[in-house]
Amino acid sequence: MGQRIKIKALLESDETNIDVTVKGWVRTFRNNQFIALNDGSTNNNVQIVVDFENTDAALLKRITTGAALSVTGTVVPSLGKGQKIDIKAKEIEILGDSDPEKYPLQPKKHSLEFLREIAHLRFRTNTFGAIFRVRNSLSFAVHQFFQERGFVYLHTPVITASDAEGAGEAFKVTNLDLDNLPRTDSGEIDYKQDFFGKATNLTVSGQLEGELGAMALSDIYTFGPTFRAENSNTTRHLAEFWMIEPEMAFYDLDDNMDLAEALLKYVIKYALDKNREDIEFLSQRLQDEDKQKPQNERSEMTLLEKLEFCLENDFVRLTYTEAIDILKDSTPNKKKKFQYLVEGWGTDLQSEHERYLVEKHFKKPVILTDYPKEIKAFYMRQNEPDANGRETVRAMDILFPGIGEIVGGSQREERLDRLEKRMDEMGIPKEELWWYLDTRRFGACPHAGFGLGFERLVLFVTGMGNIRDVIPFPRFPKNAEF
Ligand code: 4AD
Ligand code: MG
């Protein structure tokens, strides 16, 4: 009886004439003789050669696409092209049958839309196998990056009573009977009777709690799920997404940008080294897709080239005001001078502006800083007004080609008077955030941090076009099936 070996390890070793056991799911079974078996450790299948003349016909019938098998046999040099070894089966055990009439995954190319509808089975395709192995490596690399630098992984709560972004996009959490809500005398919902004795919601960001940690541990990061009830019917938004949020005491905005750029390069390089084969597969997939498109819509670079380009180049850093000046004078397409930013300084950039800067103007990742105060969150450090009296904050957004905003962060407002004034202006309840304000009362110091949207990172590294395809179980409006 051979030892069970994962298919990836088996294919990487040169040893033949040994007995092994492999377990996995049937991708195809040709001529009653050749099983392509996959166990998810790699996209490469191992070929099992079946001695069909000496195998029970009833068993052969049960070797169908999707069935789970355990196969013991001898590793032999392959007869076929493209693979080094085969396994000559000695013993085949069906662990789980798969009715070929009903199994939704056929050995052919399925559309991503169709696979989204069977998200519970899509892991079994090459594309999703590659995506989720890359996602796994990126996630590990994030931890490794911070751990190498002495950051403390701080678990911030999923249920909170605050809305860190103040955008009113939080999902409520309650155990009240919705059909019979308790009311106060004035007719409002009586949250005192709710589980926590107050209104609570799912976190939109761990930042505020992260800041508390940084004010004692110096450098912390969170990496957890965050939730937003915003319009997530786009290819870039999810209602549940994972965010990496480091927070560092004694950092200013430049330090913050340096860290974010180093993190992005580190994790991309890690995935390129660790998952070369999967990324090459995804790169090829995109090239095949590109061939279907008209010449002018094809990508200038392959996925691999794009990732390597990103590692080799410094990100461009400029202020929001400088970006607006570029956009105002830009002619994004030949036919007409598109009127970018009609409303001018002070409005938020739309994704078409971001894409123009990154993909057409600079052709590199871009870090935009010093956004207008009015379009950013209350906690960002306020700059002195410029010569024109324009008010900005020490914000930074990192924009990536094909993605748009991948990171949002800032230096934080550590001055209590400035922070309280801004909260009043924006209607943020100070009494609710007394604990946050305490960090500005006792040993306040300059500090900064950012949030990296993990799925946007996975989108970039896998070259996929829709964020719903890079998270195992996407949550978006009217979808929480799996
Ligand atoms: O820019 P955001 O809203 O910033 C914050 O939440 C800060 N508290 C972060 C911090 O400074 N600690 O979100 C940060 C990033 C965005 O740049 C984007 O990559 C991602 O989170 N993001 C989303 N990703 C997927 N779906 C959504 N609905 C997202 N909203 C934000
Ligand atoms: Mg943002």
Automatic annotation (TrEMBL):
<comment type="subunit">
    <text>Homodimer.</text>
</comment>
<keyword id="KW-0547">Nucleotide-binding</keyword>
<keyword id="KW-0436">Ligase</keyword>
<dbReference type="InterPro" id="IPR045864">
    <property type="entry name" value="aa-tRNA-synth_II/BPL/LPL"/>
</dbReference>
<dbReference type="GO" id="GO:0004816">
    <property type="term" value="F:asparagine-tRNA ligase activity"/>
</dbReference>
<dbReference type="InterPro" id="IPR004365">
    <property type="entry name" value="NA-bd_OB_tRNA"/>
</dbReference>
<dbReference type="InterPro" id="IPR012340">
    <property type="entry name" value="NA-bd_OB-fold"/>
</dbReference>
<keyword id="KW-0030">Aminoacyl-tRNA synthetase</keyword>
<keyword id="KW-0963">Cytoplasm</keyword>
<keyword id="KW-0648">Protein biosynthesis</keyword>
<comment type="similarity">
    <text>Belongs to the class-II aminoacyl-tRNA synthetase family.</text>
</comment>
<dbReference type="InterPro" id="IPR004364">
    <property type="entry name" value="Aa-tRNA-synt_II"/>
</dbReference>
<dbReference type="Pfam" id="PF01336">
    <property type="entry name" value="tRNA_anti-codon"/>
</dbReference>
<dbReference type="InterPro" id="IPR002312">
    <property type="entry name" value="Asp/Asn-tRNA-synth_IIb"/>
</dbReference>
<feature type="domain" description="Aminoacyl-transfer RNA synthetases class-II family profile">
    <location>
        <begin position="132"/>
        <end position="472"/>
    </location>
</feature>
<protein>
    <recommendedName>
        <fullName>Asparagine--tRNA ligase</fullName>
        <ecNumber>6.1.1.22</ecNumber>
    </recommendedName>
</protein>
<dbReference type="InterPro" id="IPR004522">
    <property type="entry name" value="Asn-tRNA-ligase"/>
</dbReference>
<keyword id="KW-0067">ATP-binding</keyword>
<dbReference type="InterPro" id="IPR006195">
    <property type="entry name" value="aa-tRNA-synth_II"/>
</dbReference>
<dbReference type="Pfam" id="PF00152">
    <property type="entry name" value="tRNA-synt_2"/>
</dbReference>
